[in-house]
Amino acid sequence: MTREPRIAGLRRFFSLPRSARTVEREIDDEIRFHIESRVADLAARGISRDAAREKALSEYGDVMASRRELNRLERRRLARERWVVRAESIRQDLAYAARGLGRQRGFALSVIGVLALGIGANATMFGVIDRLLLRPPALVADPARVVTADFVRSFDGEPTHQETLSYPQYLDLAGAKSIFDGVAAYTETNLALGHGAEARSVRGMKVSASYFSMLGVHARIGRLFLPEDDGAPVAPNVAVVSYGFWQREFAGDQGVVGRELQVGDTKYVIVGVAPRHFVGLSSSAIDVWIPITSGETPQAIAGWSGPRGRNGYWLQAAARLSPGVERERAAAGASRVLRANMLRDGVPENRLMESQPRFELRSVLPREARAHDASARVALLLGAVSVLVLVIACANVANLQLARGIRRRREIAVRSALGAGVGRLVQQLLCEGALLATLGGVAALVVVAGGASVMRQIVFPQLDWEDTPAIDLHVLAYAALAALAAGVLTGLVPAVQARRARLTNALHGGAREGRVHQSKARLALLIVQAALSMVMLVGTGLFVRSLRHVQALPIGMEPEHVLTAELNLSGLSYKQPEIDALYHRLERAALAYRGIESAALSTSLPFWTSWGTRVHVAGRDSLPRVRDGGPYFNGVTPGYLRTMGMRLLRGRDFTVADQNPSRRVVIVNEAFARLAWPNEDAIGRCVRIGSDTAPCADVIGVVGNPRRQEIIEDVSLQLFLPLEQAPAWVETRTLVIRPTGDARRAMASIRRYLQTSAPDLPYVDVRWMQELVSPQTRSWRMGASVFAAFGALALLLAMVGLYSMLSYDVAQRTHELGVRVALGARRGHLARLVVEAGARIIAVGTAIGLGIVLLAGRFVQPLLFETSPRQPEILAGALGVMVAVTVLATLLPTRRALEVDPIIALRAD
Amino acid sequence: MPSEPMLLAGTLDLLVLRTLTWGPRHGYAVARWIKDTSGETIEVEDRALYLALHRLEERGYVESEWGVSDANRRAKYYQLTPAGRRELRASEASFTRYVDAVFKILRASGAGSRA
Predict the structure, then answer these.
(1) Can you tell me whether residue A594 is helix, strand or coil?
(2) ipTM of this model?
(3) How far does CA A481 lie from the centroid of its chain?
(4) Distance from CA of B43 to the nearest CA of A (A)
């Protein structure tokens, strides 16, 4: 038996899969051989050829069916073989690319670095957007049906929304039974754990017992709250702790249920641990949940739920819509209950007609809940911008690839001359792109880890991060996607170029060939980079300027120099006079401390609490209303204005003598003075506070217009009275402190001092007042810092891109430049050649960028503050930076062009 | 499906593999060997045999290449691969065990239930 050469083996060796046609033919050949061999055998035994043929066929069975089934089987095998071959060729290409990149380490590292920054910027922003806008509240069952309730009233037809409700309003919601599957109330509060100097403050939340069941959350250990934990009139002292708290405080002890937490004088029994990552509807981490009614006296609770309690807004409420009930209908139904109960509680009907009190329900899904959140909107903008950064990075890489591609043209030509098809060449280049992008994507994770920690501090300082990795699955998936896109983009450019390259030309010519058709794609990429850099520069300018404007706003006080101290009274049953006595003791201690310049007590704290009242000005029927409402009053002790840095425009501050309740005095803000006594002196005028029969309070001073709740708000009418003359129903107290030095740095020592100034003081919460204000500038801070980072990156990439192209050009044109010099071209002319090439690219790119800015400006406008997207100084500044970049990028190549030695350049051939 | 009237499932594969232990053969030779050796007892359509051969090739138990037959014609030769050899040993053993078990039952005296 002789055999043909082992074709199949050869085929495998060359990775050439058989074609479907060959397979079909081989099957036919095989069957034919069988039948004919059988016929021949039978004929040899003397059977007639026809009979033999018939017998052979019948022994074989259905030939057509056999062909079909064999073909089916072989085709399947063929397809699989092709995959194997393709996989093998990709493996080879990857190995080839890896070897190539290993040889050109500089190129590989710069590409990986650029991609890492581009992908990293993207994934970082995606992480922020994901957390702000994409993720429903963690562990909440069917969050689409969960809503939070806003209380809305109209003043002069203008609705005002508030997120905090009163306890009776929560009961109103809970009374709308057929509408909601569950209603819960909650409020965040610090809880002081432990005693005396050992005490410390943890993040607590008081919730109605329905809270967890309404959200559909299940305990990690033990149980969560049950209906009886609301226990009328006083709830049992039970607590649920968070997973993080359980880990930190109890080292994850399984026997934690039944252990006690000392809060003030009250012992809370831990009944369960909430699941990991659960924060409820809050955006900040919580350590301990306790029932809203626990530790409260029955009288207190009766006060909340009675008619008086209607005006104390201190709770947030959320509800789960019953299946099939729409939000609008639910809100209407709940509002009906609200109005009916207000009537029942004695609110006059005409007041209801006037103020149209109602509930509005908002979805807790972040897309809706944060639709108007400035940070979320800026994050979205920055997310879009980060895509531009990636585009710039890809353009840069493509540019590097092109530069290399020109050098590789001969290699590619040789490969294709050796028989590699265009498809295979493209595959090879795509493999290289994929390899680079993968490495870039991995390196990007380092960028993300760094970027995420910065963004966390800017955007989510209030969240617990210890058990959330910077790079979670979402971010990882996004980074992979971005890397994939980058790989295709960066691999495609040289691939397309390879397709188009006139390969034979490359083989014929020398090294200098090919410069002629190099330019267009690279030029386009550089122009795109310049344009996007311009866009980012302007964006940076706009946000930096907005931030500066916001920070320069006169807010009428100096929160950065002020510390606030509050006694944590949770779990303690002090009566108001005792509380006042404690605060006065605290004030005296503070005033005696050497590191404290001044200190005072107040009933309200700007950006935190404000109390309104009725005020009558003698000689006027009523004050005209102002948009921001009021008048708001603040009961203070002498020194308050100085401590807060509020400027006294006229008159004097309170003195100890003013504390005498028989002689009433008041300080008004400028807006109040202007409104009540236009063009007249306010000092000495009479103001009746509370009702028109109240005794006269003499105006003794006028202060500026300190802000009440927000950095950006309309001016409100404000009054300051001696603390002793403030209405008795105002029970809130804050000690404000102005340390002599840096307030934030003094915080810890002052807290220690205050805490130990008297034995058995409740826990003293000391905070830097600036922390109440900073969240309001967060969106601009985020915009300014991220835009600046992106802008710097984009600019750097554009500059490097331009530089590398120009120096490559100069290197390629050494010969030409040498000839020019030899022919007597002046050096200045040579320099112009290079500079002009660079300047033209930047000019075109900048012009396009400017166009984009002018067109897109109005979308950005709402995110800015007192800054027009067409602000000429900003545009001019960005132009200036672009010019500087051009100069920097052309400097070295120009010098190199000037240094061309005609003799060496010409001898090179 | 092709008819394999006299054969238990999988037996044909076993027979084909066995046939190839003596060296490469084309399909016709395999068919003849099985029929002749069994004294024509095993009647199997050639179609089923080819399906078995191709399937065994797909599984990597045999490989094929085109060669020239004794009659000087182009024919497709099948050859056992090392994997095929292992498979043959394994299925031969399990088949033997199975047949032994069947025999044991068929020859049992039937007295067991009374004892």
Answers:
(1) coil
(2) 0.89
(3) 19
(4) 9
